[in-house]
Design a protein that fits this description.
- The structure holds three protein chains of three kinds.
- Chain A contains seven helices and 16 strands.
- By secondary structure, chain C is an alpha/beta fold.
- Chain C has two domains: 148 residues, NADH:ubiquinone oxidoreductase-like, 20kDa subunit (Rossmann fold, 3-Layer(aba) Sandwich); 85 residues, no CATH class.
- The chains are: A alpha/beta, B alpha/beta, C alpha/beta.
- Chains in contact: A-B, A-C, B-C.
């Protein structure tokens, strides 16, 4: 092996896009048995600069990184923080779950293509959220509520497995009481105290009165839900290019490089995570 | 642009001159295969070689690369740097130079990858033109990578009694200036017409094994997504990840944290990953978007002949033949693409 | 982390095995001392003489063969928060699994040739066939780099999951010449990675000591091994060397 040139080996400093910013957890709340809410403040209260629909890579050294949807709207009162909700399902989220107020967390981002807010403006909106889908959708719903006059009629349809799995119960209660919002919620399986609808989320769609010429449907939920909801929406006459979705993939880098989130020639971390149904229709690996 | 002659007897001196300023890596024999490795003397290299086990992408994008150091409990990396010395890749084939151009397209694309960019600035590429086909696995003629086009600082062409050096960058020019005494000048016109003749001659020694030509390939893939051929390929594949590891244009990676023994800190590292491995497209809830081997193999080839054209306007198959050569199950890119072509032509 | 934080108490136990994996752990040398900053080792036959029943993590070496071994491992399970099976004997039954070809009587006859042998002998089982195992560190013997990685992961609370893919993945990244391309045989394609292609990087072939990978391609794997010079009989034997217990378990559903 060559030894002669070893002294020439240089340490070259890299200004790394992989080095996280520092975030501090300023508020937490256990929302259900498995879901925990975090409010995070970046250094010096610098706003994250996100637009609804984007995600961040959260980092805990020694454990790793994970892509997490931003749940708060940039229009919220305190712009020095952003909010996330994490389900404890893996190694990273288990470690995140143990963190509390005052703990530090690494943040990269925001990444990804946001919801097409400019296109949504002036149109009626129908939000459909299944399970954890409410987490990213909440950022857009609150954005719309804060800029209410920019949008037409708004309806919100929520679905989850059981009443105790509902997230943001108080906040959603407030939404449901807004006179300018049409709201409905259903659970797959009721408990004795539940007085609302029972059934899968698609059962709510026929009941919504909508003008298909000026309605965008924004749908976020688990993969299985998309197939059924999209079918129902198309039946109702909502055009393919007015159905907006958000896809979940395991983005490792967030920078369109690592390949993990690739669907055909689309990189979910950059070309998504939000897509129009017309853009991904027919891509077998998308839904 | 400049063309010069180098006497074959002077190759050693030329090499020694390079060695004064650069670490040199070149093709060396490893058992019955070849690898790119550091060389001290020109005699250690085997310039007439079958593509190395791993392509030279390992110098731009190492198998494992530290992204940064951290202290436990911190959120920012304590240090982000690379360790590298100015390096000459000596004797790179034109197919591998095309591979470097593909990975350039990926890693330089906004947002550019800073590690790759720094490494790439430290690397000088001196190519060595193939005057005959390495083996039957190569498809370089169809992929149009058998002749030098771009992507190198200097290209060496064996012109029988001497070498022709084509200088293709300021970096290459600097080297040529330094090597002045070893070189012979002649009119550019003359050397260029000699090269044309040499390339006409060499074509007799190259075989075209793909039925489709370059312009037809994208169309063939556009219509083949649901072909049964993928199922057959999937049945034979064992998901060993060899084809992606040896591919000069595969660039997928995973990121993990390695913690020091005293658990005071560690480093965040990226490692080559493979879309052929089952967990690659799995998400947190357990859903896997490419569960079947057939869909993973299809994904691999679509990334070479279809998606890459849409995204980077370039085929990401360099025709080097490594995936065919390395596959234990005998999955051949040539057979697969030819089967797809026949299927399309029959419809 | 607060300074008052107690060190994690770790115990090592061996059952039916050669103690080779325990010996590997002692070869950790400096790395071992580094670990000692975070753990107290309270039970370790190869290295210390003290013994205690108060521990958080129990490392189990060896397969479980006899009735009183089963009782002993159940007791350990009750005491330990985390059980780590390490080494092939504990993780897959290892070479001991071959004993399953014979009844107790046959085995005794083969080994002791009619001489009286007062000890009880039984059917070897990997640890998870008797008690719940939290983490596995495969290998015969275990690879120290992987061992350390797993221990660090467990101490950090993220645990350790060995790779699901084949040794080939790691072997190719090291740019080794494939043994098949040299006309030799190798169990790499069907064997779980995690050893960083230890044997094949040092001129040896893979014997499959880490057990079969997850989700093997049924026909594909066999085709490759057969094509490269293994006979079916040889293959069966090679598989059984480290996978006998798994094969039996799969056969019995």
């Amino acid at each position: 092996m060559c030894k002669c040139n070893q002294d020439a080996s240089k340490t070259i400093s890299v200004d790394s896009i992989y080095s996280p910013m520092e975030g501090t957890i300023v508020k937490t709340e256990n929302m259900t048995e498995t879901e925990k809410f975090f409010e995070i403040k970046l250094e010096e209260g610098k706003p994250l600069g996100d637009i609804p629909g984007q995600f961040v890579e959260l980092s805990i050294f020694g454990i790793g990184e994970a892509p997490i949807s931003v749940s708060s709207s940039p229009t919220k009162q305190d712009q020095s923080t952003f909010e996330i909700v994490v389900r404890n399902v893996g190694m990273f989220t288990a470690a995140l779950n143990k963190l509390d107020v005052g703990d530090k967390i690494g943040v990269r981002g925001p990444f990804g293509r946001p919801f097409p807010i400019d296109d949504l403006k002036g149109n009626d909106l129908m939000f459909v959220a299944g399970g954890l889908g409410i987490v990213p959708l909440r950022s857009l719903i609150n954005f719309v509520i804060d800029r209410r006059r920019d949008f037409g009629a708004v309806s919100i349809l929520l679905g989850c497995k059981s009443p105790n799995e509902r997230l943001f119960v108080d906040e959603i209660d407030k939404w449901s009481n807004l006179t300018d919002i049409n709201y409905a919620c259903t659970v797959d399986k009721a408990d004795p105290d539940w007085k609302g609808n029972v059934g899968v989320i698609t059962t709510l769609i026929p009941g919504v009165d909508l003008d298909v010429n000026k309605t965008y449907a924004v749908v976020v939920g688990p993969p299985i839900m998309y197939k059924f909801v999209i079918k129902e929406l198309l039946k109702k006459g909502v055009p393919e290019n007015k159905i907006v979705l958000s896809l979940e993939r395991r983005m490792k880098c967030g920078l369109g490089k690592c390949g993990h989130c690739q669907i055909n020639d689309l990189y979910v971390c950059q070309d998504g995570p939000t897509f129009l149904y017309s853009e991904i229709k027919g891509l077998e690996e998308a839904l | 642009m400049r063309y010069v002659y180098l006497d074959k007897d002077n190759l050693g001196k030329f090499f020694d001159l390079l060695k004064e300023d650069y670490k040199i890596v070149g093709p060396v024999k490893k058992e019955n295969k070849f690898v790119f490795a550091e060389v001290e003397d020109v005699s250690e290299m085997s310039l007439e070689y079958i593509p190395t086990i791993l392509p030279p992408k390992k110098y731009f994008f190492p198998q494992k690369e530290k992204l940064g150091d951290f202290n436990m409990g911190d959120t920012k990396m304590s240090q982000t740097s690379i360790e590298m010395q100015p390096t000459v890749i000596f004797g790179a084939h034109t197919c591998d130079i095309d591979g470097i151009e593909c990975s350039d397209a990926v890693f330089h694309k906004d947002p550019a990858d800073p590690y790759y960019s720094k490494r790439s600035k430290m690397i000088t590429v001196i190519g060595y033109e193939c005057m005959f086909q390495c083996d039957d696995c190569a498809t370089c003629v169809t992929m149009d990578t058998h002749n030098p086009k771009a992507g190198y600082d200097i290209m060496i062409t064996d012109a029988k009694d001497k070498y022709i050096l084509h200088v293709n960058s300021p970096k290459g020019n600097e080297i040529i200036q330094k090597a002045g005494e070893l070189l012979e000048n002649d009119s550019e016109e003359k050397i260029k017409s000699y090269l044309v003749k040499l390339r006409e001659e060499k074509m007799k020694k190259f075989k075209v094994s793909l039925i489709a030509n370059y312009n037809e390939l994208k169309d063939i893939f556009d219509g083949s997504y649901n072909s049964k051929i993928w199922e057959d390929v999937g049945k034979r594949c064992v998901s060993c990840g060899n084809c992606t590891a040896v591919c000069p244009t595969c660039y997928c990676f995973d990121i993990y944290d390695d913690v020091k023994l005293d658990i005071s800190g560690g480093d965040r590292t990226r490692i080559w990953d493979s879309c052929q491995l089952k967990p690659f497209a799995e998400v947190a809830g357990g859903e896997n978007f490419r569960e079947e081997r057939s869909s993973r193999q299809r994904h691999r080839l679509f990334r070479k002949f279809d998606y890459s054209v849409n995204k980077y306007n370039k085929f990401f198959c360099t025709g080097c033949g490594r995936c065919t050569r390395t596959c234990m199950a005998g999955i051949s890119l040539i057979d697969t693409v030819n089967d797809l072509t026949k299927e399309k032509n029959n419809v | 982390m607060s300074e008052a934080k107690q060190k994690v108490r770790v115990a090592f136990f061996d059952f039916a095995d050669c103690e080779g994996c325990q010996l590997q752990v002692t070869y950790l040398n400096e790395a071992f001392l580094g670990l000692l900053e975070h753990v107290d080792i309270v039970n370790f036959r190869e290295a210390i003489s003290e013994k205690s029943d108060d521990y958080d993590i129990a490392f189990i070496e060896g397969s479980i063969t006899r009735k009183h071994d089963e009782e002993r491992i159940k007791k350990i399970r009750e005491n330990a928060k985390i059980i780590v099976a390490y080494g092939a004997c504990a993780c897959t039954g290892g070479v001991n699994g071959l004993r399953r070809h014979y009844t107790d009587e046959e085995a005794k006859e083969i080994v002791y040739k009619g001489r009286e042998f007062p000890l009880e002998a039984g059917r070897p089982k990997p640890v998870h066939e008797v008690v719940k195992v939290d983490y596995y560190i495969h290998g015969c013997p275990t690879n120290n780099d992987e061992f350390v990685k797993a221990v660090k992961g467990i101490l950090l609370g993220k645990g350790y999951t060995p790779p699901s893919y084949s040794v080939c993945v790691e072997c190719k990244l090291k740019e080794n010449v494939c043994l098949f391309e040299k006309g030799q045989t190798c169990m790499g394609p069907v064997t779980r990675a995690g050893c960083d292609a230890w044997c094949t990087s040092y001129g040896n072939k893979c014997y499959g000591c880490r057990g079969m990978l997850d989700n093997p391609a049924e026909q594909g794997q066999m085709d490759i091994l057969e094509k490269n010079g293994y006979t079916i009989a040889e293959l069966k034997q090679k598989f059984e060397t480290y996978n006998m217990c798994r094969m039996e378990a799969e056969k019995n559903g």
